[in-house]
Amino acid sequence: MTVNPTLEAPVAAPARTGAKLGIIDADVHPSMNPAIPGVLRHLPTRWQEYLVHTGLRAGAPGGDRPRHREFASRWDAVPPGGGAPGIDPAFARAQLLDAYDMSAAVLNDIGGFPLSGGMRVPAEFCAAFCSALNTYREEVWFADDPRWYGAINLPYEIPDLAVEEIVRRKEGPDGDRWVQVMLAPDNERGIGHRKYWPVLEACEHYGLPIGFHVLSGRRITPSGPANFYFEEHCDFAGLNFPVIASLVFEGTFDRFPGLKVAMVELGWSWVVPLAWRMDHAYRMMPREVELQRLPSEYIRDHLWFTTQPMEEPENPRWFDDVLALFESSGMADKLMFSSDYPHWDFDEPDSFPLSVRRDHERFGRILGGNASALYGLPLLPGTGYPVGWPRHGHEVPAARVGTSSRGRLTRR
């Protein structure tokens, strides 16, 4: 990262022990603008001509809200040659994979969400566009570095075409690089509805987790578009409850016992209270649905979560309490590090409270171990976060001084 010259010079890092904790970033974003020449040229001629006459017509209902920053990204994420943040894989590699010595990173496209939902465009165009996005990802990003992995863009409201795309990618030459499928959390029907069973069955067959990510073109929040950027930013978790309730109470995990779900950039502190509420509701009316286990048990065994945006209470000890509650509920192996690169609220490994960074076993699980187990990605030997520093909150190497999601220095 670029060091702000107005900041005080960082204290030199203490001696390292030589051991490192492997890092896998579970949420990295290529450019949010999917309509770039590299993508469009992979469309069939029919749909290229269609775009000339119609455009994408993929704006969110009610219009988009003002961004906190242009592209909602870090100022220094614009490549030297220009263009949107996340457009240049080599520059992203230098700023992220190399800067933090990562083993792997999962690319989650969200710019195509309005089209993936099949709104305001023909179904065949929606499928062709998702396929073009995936082909571009293979051609440009996968070819750049073997540490880039991807989430498959799907026309998820058209299940038969979505299944075709899953098969195309997993049976293709880059099948092992596709480690997830990407869905928006505001689908036309609850995700447990039988409409989506073919997609869920295909994901279970290939061992592909389903990733739900904030932002889409159908509903910005559960109650309509927000007027302010931070109004929406604080509402993200509102989309979580119906997704999980549908998956559990529709019996999805009984029908597809191998299915895995990742809630990406949707928070994690809310899930334990939700599980309590769902258990209580099920005990009150157990005959309304047919489940083989308590809702909390499905949540514990089938759901994963990412760290960004992280909870940042005024008293750091409260964070420890919230994380301890999460882990003691049986989910210590379900929280995965995510940076949200290149967005403005990017989190680096040093964004974690010192209490977490000092616990090497716990920190190792979060930084890379949990994601490695979910996605089947190797932790490269001798890479990652050096064990033994920072021993004090202010000891952060010069190359890693940045801002946390609340804009503070990441020295804690």
Helix content: 25-40%
| Mean pLDDT figure | 85
**What structural class results from the helix and strand content?**
alpha/beta
Shape: globular
What does this structure look like?
This protein is globular. The chain has an eight-stranded parallel β-sheet with strand order 2-3-4-5-6-7-8-9, sandwiched between helices. A two-stranded antiparallel sheet has the order 1-10. The protein contains 15 helices and ten strands. The two termini are about 20 Å apart. With about 400 residues, it is of the alpha/beta class. Helix 5 runs parallel beside helix 6. Keywords: Lyase. InterPro entries: ACMSD, Amidohydro-rel, Metal_Hydrolase.
Please describe the structure with a list of short key phrases separated by commas or semicolons:
412 residues; alpha/beta; eight-stranded parallel beta sheet; 15 helices; 10 strands; globular; disordered N terminus; disordered C terminus
